Amino acid sequence: MTEKQVVFPQGFIWGAATAAYQIEGAWNEDGRGESVWDRFAHTPGRVLYGQTGDVACDHYHRWREDVALMRDLGLQAYRFSISWPRLLPEGQGTVNQKGVDFYSRLVDALLEAGIQPFVTLFHWDLPQTLQDAGGWRNRATAEAFAEYAALAGRTLGDRVKYWCTLNEPQVVLGAGHEHAWHAPGLNDPASVPAVAHHMMLAHGWGASVLRCTAPGAEIGIALDIWPQEPASGSNADARLSQWRDCLANRRFLDVLFGRGYPVELEAYYRRLGYWPEGADDFVKAGDLQAIAVPLDFLGINHYSRSVVRDQEARDNLPVTIVAGEKTDMGWEVYPNGLYTVLTRIWREYRPRRIFITENGASYSDAPGPDGKVHDARRIAFLRHYFTAAQRALQDGVPLAGYFVWSLLDNFEWALGYTQRFGLIWVDYQTQQRILKDSALWYRQVIAENGL
Ligand code: IFM
To answer: What pLDDT digit, counting tens, does each position of 46-67 carry?
Structure first.
């Protein structure tokens, strides 16, 4: 197929994505409460070079300029997240009207620019007050999330049509509660199954209250799906890849699509004593139904794959292999993985629609002597991933849109500002923005609805 033939269906939505803590800054302005990421980043040794999201891209003050850039690119949609503690400084209870006003103005400006807002409610910045009370280990946090979702629906639901409840719960689980790489910085594997369940419950309850408070809303969740492929044809590698798929992907997909938790997952945690029986079981009557509330779309964040080999079978070799070309994150460039993910999810779960809610690459290309950013590797990356998505469309996958991660270079969590995913370069000293070559190229893709 020649590139010219890579066209997308009419009405396909092209967008870009960001998240509140990664771009907004203004961490303690206008009544915003503290989030777990403020606490984490302010704790020495947690984030590379001690960097924080205190200022980030200063989007809280520069949002008008950023919306103008989006309009200039011809973006049809913009996926951003609401900072929960900006709306509810304590996580529940008193509402911060200035926070509501900020997102309300942003939504109005987007709509005026012809850009559909896609709102994510939870992109990792849990209010610290809720964390102090136990965070996602507590069922009460899911209740607080439902209150927050209702508030967001009541205040923005008249204008925002597309909603994602949670972003990448797997990362909050593994990086945040098991390995302490992310906020809240816990090394508490025993909490993992309850934390996962309470996040799923928050999703289900949040989706249900949005249905009431934002009539006509299209509701989904954004999961990061990493295929776990076996390194060889051996049974040991196959078994390991299936288990890792269960831990990373199926634990969320199965329960969201009404199949309950994978039996092997439950048995594993029960054996470890992490999933109590009887009255102490954190799964209560009605929970699984609440979680499996029908969704309008599934959001898939996809970046790369893991190739795994069984360590016990082959002593001293690393479990995960990364071969071939890599981005600056060390993630393999493997566009076929996107095709595999899309067709597999469609085959096995039949979501009504799918959005690629994130895909992109970190490359550090900086402005050259001509003042421009020639990020040819990002263009090549996106070209190949777009082509893989279009192949999935041709095979019947109901893919409705594509959000490039990210609109702007931003705070890449524990890696601080060392990774640049943006279509737009950000100079963190001056806050100058420069459209990279990839942004100009993306503008053309959007205008032509294809390559
Ligand atoms: O920056 C993150 C984003 O917050 C969630 N998905 C992956 C991106 C790149 O690591």
So the answer is: 999 999 999 999 999 999 999 9
Residue showing tokens 């939870």: 122
Catalytic residue check, 325: no
8-state DSSP, 173: I
Ligand 1 atom at shortest distance from the alpha carbon of 301: 6
**Catalytic-role residue among 34, 218, 332, 358:** 358
- 90 classed as catalytic: no
Share of the chain above pLDDT 70, in %: 98
Could you give the domains of the chain? Answer: 3-448 (3.20.20.80)
* 272 φ, ψ (degrees, to nearest 5): -75, -15
Return d(Cα 299, Cα 354) in angstroms, integer. Answer: 6
What 8-state DSSP symbol labels residue 408?
B
Of 24, 34, 168, 229, which one is the catalytic site residue? 168
The rounded distance, in Å, linking the Cα atoms of 22 and 421 is: 11
Mean pLDDT for the stretch of residues 112-140: 98
Q: Is the pTM of this model over 0.85?
A: yes
Tell whether the model's pLDDT for residue 432 goes beyond 90. yes
Q: Residue 219 belongs to what H/E stretch?
A: strand 218-224
Query: Cα 180 from chain centroid?
Result: 19
